[in-house]
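User: Teach me something about this protein's shape.
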Amino acid sequence: MRFVICHACWSWVAPSGVACPECQQPIDVTRPDPSVSEFATIFGEFVARIATVRMDRRKLPAWGSLVGTTTGVMFVPFLQRRADGSLTAGHHDSGRWDVWSVWRFWRRPAFPAGRMLAEKNHAAAHTVDELDLVETYLNAPGSLFVPRNQLLRWHTRGQHWSLARTRGGTLHFRIQSPPDEWRPAWRQLLAASSAWQGIISC
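Assistant: First, the predicted structure itself:
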């Protein structure tokens, strides 16, 4: 199956025709993706890892992380690399995510929620790496990014979150992280930009 990046809604998709299955905008597979610097401008800077989530979809990996940035929100699926080099979706196993090891930015001291998670799941970790949003997005088929100016509403109801957007249908997530992890992340988003205050609805 071939995956491409839609330049209208910034979703990794498997097009079945000439239009993006997410936002229905035309997809030109001959058009090159933006440069790394252009992607960096679009994605902004990392603010906080919000939560572990399960996304309501079938054809692409559903388990992953929601990450807040200065310009929007990114979903990055948990993926595992097989011996032959191919990627497969990560699986939830006995309440533990082995694929969390690829998210080395969780060990970054500046982010308390990440540090708590790192201490819990990676007590033996040694290095501290800066998260590269562009590299992470480009190397994780199934990722998507919703710019803040395309977000209409971020609604929460118990463990169910929905993100209404101007391009593409509403995204539905089931939250796997406890409130004491994602609430501090929201406070970080609000502190990073007051523009989030009119979008996030608890």
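Now, about its shape. The CA atoms of residues 83 and 200 lie 41 Å apart. The first strand starts at residue 4 and ends at 5. If you'd like, I can walk through any region in more detail.
User: That's plenty for now, thanks!
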